[in-house]
Amino acid sequence: MEQEVQGLSSEIHHFQSQISDYLPYIVSFCFKVIFALLVFWAGGKVIRWLVRFIKKSMEKTSVDKGVVQFIGSLTRVILYVFLIFNIATYFGVKESSVAALLGTAGVTIGLALQGGLANIAGGIMLLIFKPFQVGDYIMIQQQTNCEGYVYKIEICYTTLLSIDNKHVVIPNGTLSNSIITNVTARDLRKLEIRVGISYDSSIQKAKQILEDILRNDEDTKDDQDMVVFVDELGDSAVILGFRVWVPTDKYWNARWRINEKIKEEFDANNIKIPYNQMEIYVNNKKPE
Predict the structure, then answer these.
(1) Pairing of strands 137-140, 180-182
(2) I need a surface site. Which of 100, 155, 158, 241 has the fewest CB within 10 A?
């Protein structure tokens, strides 16, 4: 029993001596970890400040907003990699080892995230060829219900803002390989509307009404290739139509207003707009 107590006491003493020997290293390592966390926190603050500074500087030089957003995202990634590299070297890791580790990790991540690299390449292609800019209204033909105003262009993704204020996030790789319709690329947009009138109504009078509506509307450019025409002799109606240029940003307001004005003027001038009708005959005769 006495020997066991002596053995246990010896082990405790040995353990205490080991702790006392390694204690300076443990304390030093803890301080390094705390210092590294503080450096990472402070470095993050500096990175965010630098990114904001770069963005504001580029905006003052009238650089495209999409380019500003993309450069900001790319700069943030590069600065964080540089920050982590410096923290690793502070812990005693050699620069060559960190470079080799980053290279290996880059290859591994690149193989695992080929889509991500395609998105980065797609983002660069979008910025070079500029099929659209921030603020444009675009439609992606390969994607159902995928349209909206371009809200921001980042390193991997482009965000659209839909009419009902939803965020639509699209990978840049998908965008760069899609057919894109840029609705707001031009200042003017051609408005085309067709309306049917009955065969009993006067075609010339209806055409004159349409011309007067277009000339008196506040947004139509009646001096630029405005045309009113008979488009089709249908089964139950004569289809009239017109084409006129309007400012792109006022396209829908002009379309809705003119449609309403056509109905009001046709009613006032006894121009009938035919519509499908169903006639039901009730036979009240009782069988004999």
Answers:
(1) antiparallel
(2) 100
Nearest-10 crossing angle of helices 65-90, 114-129: 140
Category of 145 on φ-ψ map: left (φ > 0), alpha (ψ -120 to 50) or beta: left
pLDDT digits 0-9 by tens, 66-89:
777 777 777 887 887 777 777 777
Dist CA 134 CA 67 (whole Å): 9
Distance CA 82, CA 238 (A): 71
- Those residues whose C-beta lies under 8 Å from the C-beta of residue 163, and which sit 6 or more positions away, are 148
Is residue 188 within a helix (H) or strand (E), and if so which, with residue range?
strand 188-197
**Nearest-angstrom CA–CA distance, 80 and 43:** 8
Residue 248 has pLDDT above 90, yes or no: yes
Q: How far apart are CA 172 and CA 154, in angstroms?
A: 9
Q: What is the pLDDT of residues 99-137, one digit of tens each?
A: 665 566 555 555 445 566 778 788 888 887 888 888 899
Instruction: Classify 153 as helix, strand or coil.
Output: strand
Please report where in the chains the tokens 């045309």 appear, as a residue: 227
Query: Is pLDDT at 22 greater than 70 in this prediction?
Result: no
Residues sharing a CB contact under 8 Å with residue 134, sequence separation 6 or more, in sequence order = 64, 65, 66, 69, 150, 151, 152, 153
How far from chain centre, in Å, is Cα 123?
12
Contact between residue 120 and residue 156 where contact means Cβ atoms under 8 Å apart: yes
Helices marked H in the chain — which ranges?
Answer: 2-60, 65-90, 95-112, 114-129, 172-176, 203-216, 251-268
The DSSP secondary structure of 33-71, one letter per residue, reads: HHHHHHHHHHHHHHHHHHHHHHHHHHHHTT--HHHHHHH
